[in-house]
Amino acid sequence: MKTTISEVNKYLGQEVTIGAWLANKRSSGKIAFLQLRDGTGFIQGVVVKSEVEEAIFKQAKSLTQETSLYVKGVVQEDSRSPFGYELQVTGIEVIHEAIDYPITPKEHGTEFLMDHRHLWLRSRRQHAVMKIRNEIIRATYEFFNKEGFVKVDPPILTGSSPEGTTELFHTKYFDEDAFLSQSGQLYMEAAAMALGKVFSFGPTFRAEKSKTRRHLIEFWMIEPEMAFYQFEDNLKVQEEYVSYIVQSVLENCQLELERLGRDTSKLEKIKAPFPRISYDDAIKFLHEKGFDDITWGDDFGAPHETAIAENYDMPVFITHYPTSLKPFYMQPDPDREEVVLCADLIAPEGYGEIIGGSERVHDVNLIKERVKEHGLETDAYKWYLELREYGSVPHSGFGLGLERTVAWLSGVEHVRETIPFPRLLNRIYP
C-alpha cells in the first residue's frame, strides 16, 4: 500500500510504501535509524540487520543525506516520537542518490542558509514554519467565508498609490507610468460598494530600504473591506479574525509548534476582545517608561511598540493616531479632527504591528480635500472619488501582514523565515 507519512496512522501493523528523502541517519552496528521526510511530515525508519537481507542493511548504512527513495516497511506505534509512529523497514529502492548535500547537520551562517533557501526549506524547522503559514491561510479563507465575505483580487499593477509614491516600485506600462501595488485597499473599497463585505489575499511590494527583522520587500496581505461598517464594527472583526487564526494554529499545528519550541501557553490566552490604548495615552505611557524623545505627532518605532505591547499579554489596539501621520483616506474623529478613526494592532512578545485599519472617509467633499492636501493627482484618483459620488456609505477595512503574523505565532525571530523565498533589501536570489 502506497501512502504518505501523515497518513501512516491509518495503516498500523500493515506494510506500506512511502516515497521520501533521507533527512539524516545514524547507526549502531546492528541497527540503522533513517530520518525520513516526504513533505507531509517526518518519520523514523528502523532497519534491523537481523530482520532484513544483508544487502538492504548495507544499503541503508550507505545512504547519503537527501537521497530520494521508496521505503517499504511496517507501521508501528512509537511513544518516544512526537509523531507517535515509526517504520520497521523491510525494503529500500533508491530513486536518486544525492552527493555532497550542502546543508549538513552542523551549524551554518544565516547568509549561507539564505543562499541555499531552495534547500533550507527542507529542514524540520522551515517545514514547521511553512505548515503554520499554510494553516493561517486556510483558517483565513474559512473565517471570511463563514462570515459572508466575498474574495476579490485587486490588481498588482496600479497607476497610483494609496499611501504616496515614496515606497513604490516604478515600472513602465507600455507608454504610461505604473507601480507595483503596496496595498489593494482602494480597489477593495470599490469591491465593497458592489459586494458588501469583501477580502483580498495577495502579494504587496514596498520599496522601503529597511533591514529590520520585521520588514520584507515583497510580502502578503489579507485586506478585508466592509460597507456600512464603522470604526467599532471594524475592530470587532479584527479581534475575532485574529482569535480565530490563533486557535486554528493551536488546534491543527501542535506538532509544528512543539518542533519550534513555541510556548503555546502565551497563544492560548489570545481570545477576543483585545485591550485598547489611545495614541494620547500611549504617548503618556512611553514618557513614563523613559522615552522622553517622543512627542505628540511622532510615529511609533519598533522600540515604542514593543514597550507598549509588553504591558499586555494579548494583542493591543493603539487607536486614534494624529491625522498628519496617516494616509489621506482615513476618517477624522467627528469629535476631534486632529485624530483619525484608525487602529494598529500590536502583537505581544515584541512582534510589532500585524494589522493597520481604519474607517474610511465617505464624504465626497472631504475626500477631495484630502487628496489635494496630500498633493495627489486628481486625475489618477478620479475613479476612487467617484465611489463617494454615487451612493457613498460609511465603510471600514484593515490589512493583516501575513509574514509578521506567521513570525509571531511560530515564535521565529525574523520574517525572512516566514515566506518561502524572501525578498530583502540586498537579496533577490534564489
TrEMBL record:
A family per Pfam: tRNA_anti-codon
Keyword field: Aminoacyl-tRNA synthetase, ATP-binding, Cytoplasm, Ligase, Nucleotide-binding, Protein biosynthesis
Keyword match Nucleotide-binding: yes
Protein family: Belongs to the class-II aminoacyl-tRNA synthetase family.
Record-linked InterPro entries: Aa-tRNA-synt_II, aa-tRNA-synth_II, aa-tRNA-synth_II/BPL/LPL, Asn-tRNA-ligase, Asp/Asn-tRNA-synth_IIb, NA-bd_OB-fold, NA-bd_OB_tRNA
Keyword Transport: no
Protein name listed in UniProt: Asparagine--tRNA ligase
Subcellular localization: Cytoplasm
Domain Aminoacyl-transfer RNA synthetases class-II family profile: 130-430
Subunit structure comment from the entry: Homodimer.
Annotated catalysed reactions: tRNA(Asn) + L-asparagine + ATP = L-asparaginyl-tRNA(Asn) + AMP + diphosphate + H(+)
GO MF terms held by the record: asparagine-tRNA ligase activity
The enzyme's E.C. designation: 6.1.1.22
